[in-house]
Amino acid sequence: MDAGELTGWRRPDRGVLFVITGPSGVGKSTLIKRARQVIPDLGFSVSATTRAPRAGEVDGIDYHFLENDRFEELVGQGAFLEHARVYDRWYGTLRAPVEESLAAGRSIVLDIDVAGHRQVRESGMPAVHILLLPPDLITLENRLRRRGTDSEETIARRMDQVAGQLEAVAEFDHLVVNDNLRTAHKVFQGVLLGALTRTAHRGGLVRTVRGWLAARKESLEGTAEGEGSDAP
Ligand code: ADP
Ligand code: 5GP
User: Fold this and answer.
1) Average pLDDT over all residues of the chain
2) Whose atoms come closest to the Cα of 162: which ligand?
3) Using a 6 Å cutoff on CB, does residue 181 contact ligand 1?
4) In which domain, by residue range, is 32 found?
5) For residue 117, what is the domain's CATH number?
6) With a 6 A CB cut-off, is 34 part of the ligand 1 pocket?
């Protein structure tokens, strides 16, 4: 991973879970991809889905593409942190890789819909919930069309679902508007970095600073004693 833009970055002790939600075509993949090139130790949770792969999508990288039976089996085993029906297909976040990643100090991004965001909230798992917004709905539809991966029928269906994604607007911790892409990258990365520097995730740094102070105090006391013994 190229994390050269943040040389000297101090990683948190425990990873932060980021829930990214927003209507299809708003730019979630675009912003997440760039943030992962810039911010060290930022993983992506590869969801499971029963939808068919799009051209260029790779199993295990973009999604774990599963048959319905297998997905339902995993639901029965409690393997999902959250799962939801989106556009008539199943999508879900596997619990184990997320928990392992966070425990190892590696933060992780979930790109999930509103139902998934609510399930993560209800699970009580600490997470930073970010909603991405388009500048307006016409722009959103144009982006879906320009992406060139969906039929007109699918685009119309996705636009029908937008209200359901956006009515939750007030539930999120952060709202990021993706209008000018350069600005959106900066704001999005700023939100992630802000969460990653929270003291709650920085026990190691707290101990380091206390160590500096203890060492300095010791060295000053040592000097004072030394001065004392030299006195006539
Ligand atoms: P999502 O992952 O939310 O479905 P994508 O990241 O695939 O959305 O973006 C949808 C399309 O919009 C892509 O073709 C992408 O290149 C384009 N796009 C993303 N952000 C912007 C932006 N700020 N301005 C113009 N086009 C954008
Ligand atoms: P797409 O089919 O365009 O890749 O994704 C469609 C929608 O499904 C997007 O809104 C995306 O955020 C959502 N999605 C992708 N993975 C998951 C997941 O694991 N859980 C939930 N709840 N939604 C997901």
Assistant:
1) 92
2) 2
3) yes
4) 17-44+106-224
5) 3.40.50.300
6) no
Residue position matching structure tokens 């101090």: 10
| pTM tops 0.85 | yes
For residues 85-94, average pLDDT? 93
Nearest ligand to the C-alpha atom of residue 63: 2
The pLDDT value recorded for residue 175 is: 98
> Quick check: helix, strand or coil at residue 107?
strand
Mutation probe of ligand 2 site: the residue of 28, 61, 111, 122 with most atoms within 8 A of C-beta: 111
Residue 47 contacts residue 115 (beta carbons within 8 Å): no
Q: Answer yes or no: is pLDDT of 2 > 70.
A: no
Candidate of 132, 142, 147, 180 to mutate for ligand 1, largest count of ligand atoms within 8 Å of Cβ: 147
Tokens matching residue 50: 């029963």
Identify which ligand lies nearest to the alpha carbon of 140: 1
Residue 131: burial class (beta carbons within 10 Å; 0-12, 13-18, 19+): buried
Say how many domains are in the chain: 1
Q: Does 72 fall in a domain? A: no
